[in-house]
Amino acid sequence: MRVLVVEDEQLLADAVATGLRREAMAVDVVYDGAAALERIGVNDYDVVVLDRDLPLVHGDDVCRRIVELGMPTRVLMLTASGDVSDRVEGLEIGADDYLPKPFAFSELIARVRALGRRTSVPLPPVLERAGIKLDPNRREVFREGQEVQLAPKEFAVLEVLMRSEGAVVSAEQLLEKAWDENTDPFTNVVRVTVMTLRRKLGEPPVIVTVPGSGYRI
C-alpha cells in the first residue's frame, strides 16, 4: 500500500511514517499543502493521511483537489479539533474518514488499512490464494497452515501480488506500491526481494515470473 503523510508537525509526521513503514507500507512524507499537491500530481497513492491545518495550501484545498481529479485515493483527515461540526465539514469536503488529535496509533493503522481496502475492487480482510493465507491486519502469512516469517518489504510485495488475484504485476508496479519515492528505480531491489520471498514461501514455487512482464501468483 502506498501512503502519503501530510503533516506540518515534522516530528509527528516522521513518527507516523515510521510506524506505517513498520506495517509494510510504502510511505512518502511532506510538511505543507503545496508539496502535497505536487506529490499527488506525480504519484498514485492508496491513502493520504492529511492534516487539515497546513501551511501554504490548506488541507481542505488539498482534499478538494483530490476529489476534483477523480482519483481513487482515499483521504484520512487529521485535526487538532474534535468538534462534531469540524468532522462533518471535513467529510463534506470529500474526506473519507476523520481522526482527531491526539490519536492512538493502533487506530490510525486500522483506519488507513480500512481505507486502503476501498481503493480497488473490494477484497476480504484475509487474502487467500495458492495455499497462502495473508492477514494484513495481523501481519501474518501462512502457507498450508505453516507460518512464514517475512520482512516488511517481503510482506508488502506478497500483499500486492495477492491483491492482484492472479493478474501479472510489473516490477514497476511493485516498486510503486511497496517502496517510497526515495528508492532508485534502476536498482534490482524488486528482483532480489521476490527471490527472497520465493525462498521463504518454500516449494513448490507459487510466484511465477512472466518474462518481459512481471510476476503473478
Automatic annotation (TrEMBL):
Q: Which InterPro entries match?
A: CheY-like_superfamily, OmpR/PhoB-type_DNA-bd, Sig_transdc_resp-reg_receiver, WalR-like, WH-like_DNA-bd_sf
Which PROSITE patterns does this chain map to?
Answer: OMPR_PHOB (PS51755), RESPONSE_REGULATORY (PS50110)
Q: What range(s) does the OmpR/PhoB-type domain occupy?
A: 124-217
Q: Which UniProt keywords apply?
A: DNA-binding, Phosphoprotein
| Pfam families the record matches | Response_reg, Trans_reg_C
Query: What are the coiled-coil residue ranges?
Result: none
Q: Entry's PANTHER family?
A: REGULATOR OF RPOS, TRANSCRIPTIONAL REGULATORY PROTEIN CUTR
Q: Would you tell me the protein name for this molecule?
A: Response regulator transcription factor
Q: Which organism is it from?
A: Streptomyces cathayae
